[in-house]
Design goal:
Structural class: mainly alpha
Protein name: HhH-GPD domain-containing protein
Helix content: 55-70%
Largest sheet: none
Shape: elongated
Order of helices and strands: HHHHH
Radius of gyration: 15 Å
InterPro entries: Alkylbase_DNA_Glycosylase/TA, DNA_glycosylase, HhH-GPD_domain
GO molecular function: alkylated DNA binding; DNA-3-methyladenine glycosylase activity; DNA-7-methylguanine glycosylase activity
Number of helices: 5
Number of strands: 0
Keywords: DNA damage, DNA repair
Length: about 100
Amino acid sequence: MDDDMLLNRLTEVKGIGVWSVHMFMLFSLHRPDVLPVGDLGVRKGVQSLYRLKDLPQALEMEQICEKWKPYRSVGSWYMWRLMEAKALANKAAKKT
């Protein structure tokens, strides 16, 4: 089943939204080209990496991350790690 069909079928189930389906495709199905445009960590990572003034919305995320295809899942993982590293650096800076 392709990604769009899977997304449409699973979001028909009450309580399952787009973010949940994206996480399922990333971590359970190990799909290589998933961009969770609604994930705050990925959005903040893209904002930080590309030095955007505002948090990118879904359409802007799609446009910016187009160049990551066909490995947007890997790019998303790196955005999470970027935000995790920034948080650790901020925490360490506050200790000193």
